[in-house]
Amino acid sequence: MITRIQANILVLVLVGLGIPAYFKAKYYLIGQLTLGDIFTWGIFIDLSFGFGMSSLVVVGHELVVRYLRKRFPARTSHTTRFLIQMGMTTLYAWIAVYSFTQFFFNVLFPFTIGKDTWLDLFIMAFFIPIFVNGVKESVYYYGEWEAEYLRREQLQKENIKAQYEILKNQINPHFLFNSFNTLTELIDESKELAIKFLQQLSRVYRFVLEHKDTEVVELDDELKVLDSYLFLLKIRFGENLQVHYNLGNNPSHYNIVPLTLQILLENALKHNVVSKDNPLKVDIELSKDSKLVFKNNLQKRKAAPSTKTGLQNIINRYRFISDQSVDIMETPTDFVVKVPLIRVEAV
Q1: pLDDT digits (tens, 9 = 90+) for 198-239
Q2: 334 close to 296: Cβ distance less than 8 angstroms
Q3: Angle 335-209-347 from CA coordinates, rounded to 5°
Q4: How far apart are CA 276 and CA 99, in angstroms?
Q5: Domain assignments of the chain as residue spans, ordered by start
Q6: Residue 248 — left, alpha, or beta (φ > 0 → left; ψ -120 to 50 → alpha)?
Q7: Residue 153 burial (10 A CB sphere; 0-12, 13-18, 19+)
Q8: Which of 51, 129, 186, 250 has the highest count of CB atoms within 10 angstroms of its CB?
Q9: pTM beyond cutoff 0.90
Q10: Can you tell me the distance from the alpha carbon of 99 to that of 114, in angstroms, rounded to the nearest whole number?
Q11: Which of 319, 228, 312 is nearest to 267 (CA)?
Q12: Under CATH, which architecture does the 171-346 domain have?
């Protein structure tokens, strides 16, 4: 990647060499110079003029650009800013060319300049800013594109890692061990209930495997698999776990990151006491700003500090697909997570 300093040096060299090269070539072609005249000690004077002029133009251009980028920071005003930039840098270039030429050939190296040379210089003063703006704007927007590309690549890596963590956390030995223990007991107590338990368990893990690489699913489908997951949990916890929905009549109008609700429910069970005397109460609602609100009463377990892996997975995945954030709040009585929903029409 070319930095702004490297771009300035590149422009400085090209313009510094280009100005004397143009005049040498012009006077050679019209017969006023020979090859021997070109490569004399006078070439150092020509190069001094070229690089002096180039330095003034590059420094002035940089100052103008810095001022305008502060004055017009928004991307929407880029066209306006660029047109003003072209006008200001061209005007500056004319002033710089006239002032520096007068100083160089009247004070440093007295020399009479003809009208045709002045015309050439002012034409250069028009095209040099176009060249400088072209080079530096290309470098600037290439840098912006590369930074955005790297950011997207990083977010994609985080998303892939999050998906892997979700899959790993869902198919974990502890959950499977509890599920199979429950299934073993049910086989002795009620074969019909055992069969239904196995069907719901299969449905949950089929959903996990089918959507492990999916960015979003319909909220309606997420709720259906949550029902299956709740069926498994209800066998273990009974009325000690109480989950209530309040999502209106159109949950299918929204999309959600898959397994979000299952992870939030697991998180609530992991960190809170669930008992007859202290039932865990979970409310899942749709807010007015189209966010899914997951709230559970707070009755913390005495356990090791949380790593917040599950919540971080959700945050990372939403960061990849949406500009809306996941809001997490804790009060003395409740733990609340607000998850952005994505309208189906926008996907």
Answers
A1: 888 888 888 877 877 778 889 989 998 899 889 888 888 899
A2: yes
A3: 70
A4: 89
A5: 4-154, 171-346
A6: left
A7: exposed
A8: 129
A9: no
A10: 16
A11: 312
A12: 2-Layer Sandwich (3.30)
